[in-house]
Amino acid sequence: MRFTLVLLLLIACFASFACAQTPVATLTAGAGVTLNGKTLQTAGAPNWPLAAGDKVGTTDKSANIKFVSGAKVKLTSSTEIATAPTSTCTVTVTQGSICYRKPPAGLFTVCGPDGSPLNIQPSKGTVALDTAGRAFVTSGCGTNVPLILGGAAAAATATTVAIVAPSDKSAK
Asked: Cys bridge to 50: 16, 20, 25, 41, which one at CB 3.0-4.6 A?
């Protein structure tokens, strides 16, 4: 009787491991991040495995995600995404903005809130949503994060141009 009970418990334990989803990414975050609507307790455990369909949100902090393909995504503050919600999308942005870096040969697709794939830059870029939920894609990360203008909902990047006159020492 005892042997049968132990055997049933072992089978149930192995079945739960067999049914567990394979991680598609790892989330690295501090305080102020939610996973599937629940606040993460990150003290002492800043890294969390993510499965397909997981929803990650940030409040006033950022978070980083590294996918098994090698792709990296940084969520800015006030951003919400879903990981691999469909076979077409690696990540779907539903609010805010992300900065991404694609691996050279890896498959990586970003989708907008409506689930349609966006035409993203080949190696790295930024995807931002305006207040109407429209997606804007720019190249680069960090200094090229788009400015989302309230009601007009336009995206722009800040650029500084220096014009320097050539030095002509022969004309004296």
From this structure: 25
DSSP secondary structure letters along 28-77: EE-SSEEETTEE---TT--EEEE-TT-EEEESSS-EEEEETTS-EEEE-T
Residue 169 lies in a domain: no
If you search the block for the tokens 């369909």, which residue do you land on?
A: 53
- Number of domains within the chain: 1
pLDDT above 70 for 83: yes
Q: Which residues contact 145 (CB under 8 A, 6 or more apart)?
A: 76, 97, 99, 126, 128, 138, 157
Tens of pLDDT, residue by residue over 36-63, are 999 988 787 789 999 999 999 999 989 9
Query: Among 85, 73, 96, 89, which Cα is nearest to 27's?
Result: 73
Phi/psi at 49 (5° precision): -75, 145
The candidate with the shortest Cα–Cα distance to 96, out of 65, 56, 124, 68, is: 56
